[in-house]
Structure prediction request, 829 residues.
Amino acid sequence: MLVERAKNKISDVRADIEREITSRWLSDFQSRNEWLLVDGSLSGDYHKYDSPNIVGVIKSHQTQYFLWEDQQKILNLKARERSGIFIPKGRNRPDVYSWYLRLRPNDGRDVYFGLVRVEAAKCRRTLDMADEISRWLLAERSPLSMPDARWDRLIYPIHDCELYLKSTAPSHTSLDSLMTGLIA
Amino acid sequence: MEQKYLIQVGRVVATEAKPSTAYSFSFWAAEGDSKVGIGTLVVVKKDDLKVYGVVVEGFGFTDLGSAMHDYIGSEGDPGSEAPTLRHEVRCYTAAVLRVEPEEPLQPVPVAPVYLADDMVVRNALRMDSFWEKSGIPIGLYQNGDLLSPVYLDSEFLLGPEAAHLNITGVSGLATKTSSIEFILLSIFEHFNERDDDGIAVVCFNVKGPDMLFLDFPGSTVDERDAEMYDLLRIPNTPFKNVKYFAPFKSDRVNLNTLRTHPDLIGNVTPLSWGLIDILEFTEVVLNRDDVDAKADALIAYIKDRVVNETSEVNGQQITVRNFQDMNHWFDMVLKEMEQSNRSEWKTHHYATIRKVYNRLSNLSTRYQGLISPDEFRSDLPWGDFEDRAVYVVDVANVDPQAQDLVFTRIVSQLRQRLEKGDLGVKHVIVVVDELNKYAPSDGQETYLKQTLLDISERGRYLGLVLFSAQQFRSQVHKRIVGNSATCIYGRMDMDELATPGYQVLTSATKEKLATLSKGQLMVRHPHFNQPIFVKFPRPNIMRGPDGIKAYPPANDLPLEEAVWQNLNRLDGGVSRNEVSDIVASAADSSEIVRAMNITLQRRPDDPISHFRNCVRKKAGVQTTPGSKPSFIPVLDPDPSDPFQD
Prediction:
């Protein structure tokens, strides 16, 4: 119970930080021709900008946005193919445009292998740039993010970023010893 | 304060799989233009602790788990370039050279790693304790753009603490000869001994013209080399005082060397030894099977009672000073035995006397050119060795047995003289190339090998130091290379590096050794815990092949021409006719050779008169048909006898 609460707390704090960083980045760098890639759904105040340079890549597919017939089309996407653009519903946040993209062929593998969902701001430019953004993501398939188990959907820059964050995090041994100290 | 000027290049890493120890540590280095490589000297600093190390191994890797992953990532297209590059880390393993303070000796801490500067190089290699007092620059350690002099301790190079130097390297890359020449120049410049000590070098030139132009400047010293000379404080010049020695060819007129160009021959002294010189080396020049106990006893008798003594045989007085006298002495002894019908003479059996007579009298024939049958002797200037002089003995064209004799006698003389302190200098460096040939690890025992072993094992107490070189260290007698306190390695063959003698080196060091460029060396010295890579400038000395091109050897001269040219060098006014008359008046050509050599050696004010006086004339007796001329030997005339006609 305590562990579960701690996990939720950490998750909330992390979401807050992500939101804050996104907002700060948009405020500082939006004017430049640079893009921010977000691991997961978009957050922050992207809706305040006309055409914010921000893209989110979602690797997990717990929410099914379509009925079976349409969903089947998505699951049958071939490598380098994308779905049409849609507006995902059900989240308490400003609307975004989204589409599915198959990064790698899933022949003989499960239906979600290599499948990611892309989110970008709800604006005209996103409609124009969906193919281009998809190509950017396809280009980032290399290098491979092995040995991560999600290597089929995890693009290397995110893997690289995770590697950095992990290197700065205290080890389990250090955390255990800290926790022991706190309890004592 | 010091740390401010050092460039940080990395940080120590210690993992469970690869922990730091007291003797080695790993560190990662910065990406990009890192100055770190195999052989780089670094220092780890933490508070007051300094750990000096030398990089012995390097490895780089990324987070790529398998080549397959890269293949899949590139979709099998080797030309595809990923927009995001994997991180690449370069890690290095360094062997600890020195720790300050030395106690307690602990594993190297996780701390910043800095590139070595001049001061750090000095401390890391423990040169701080000796470089001012007894340092001999061996080359420059390169750290990026920084060049730091590396010193050897003369007390460990030239004795008495340790001694000898051995150089290994493949042929044709100017490693062995060039590095020896450079080190000798450095020693001559930096060896600090008391004024009355002095140091000289005896080089045995064993192949071609390698060491025959040591006193001529080369043409290959560029700006970079000149800068290196400045940093090492060594004059960029050839040797100033070089004396050359070579035996005669079998005609005993022309010298058996390639340095016979008319402009250079004046500096080549004949190496010609007489009976007295070689009698104590009979075991070298005679077949061991011949010198049994009986023969040995007779030779000892001749040495003690006959040579340089006046003895009476068969009622006649005889003084033996050379091979001709000795032959006559044997004739007289045998004649006495035959006349008196005795089988023994002074306890020596007739057969033993015949055998020793046969073997000794043949020496001047077997070693024609080196052993003189008459009283002419010419040798190294024993007792008058000059400080900072190089004595080159050219034995390149001499047969192996004669080389044995030359090496053995010269080294034996050096040892005896150094022991007595009457050589003229207190330290002598003997330079021998091609140890693979002269002191192989297998093969038969030779006196030369024994001599080299003797120098390497006992020389340092006497100031007799061996600088040796070879292509394959693994194939040289272990005790010779083992006794060399300082070892230098140039570019090596991979086959040689695979032999057990190189197991102590890491694979990276071996690979670096196999790809060393000209002018790069790896040095091992008692003060250095680990081998160190250095650069040395090309010596400003004419290479043998260039010397031969600039000063082509002269053709062998006929006797009369040789006499005229040689005497003319002493006195420009000698006329050809005068020489021709004297040559015509001589009993035989050996008389002319003897008289010429004696004249050249004594260098009189009036060479032609001296030459004339030295020549024994034809008897001038008209032979009577049918009557047997009687033969009366004329013994050892004194050329300076004023009453001689």
Q: What stands out?
A: Chain B touches chain A at residues 63-66, 69-70, 72-75, 80, 82-87 (CB under 8 Å).
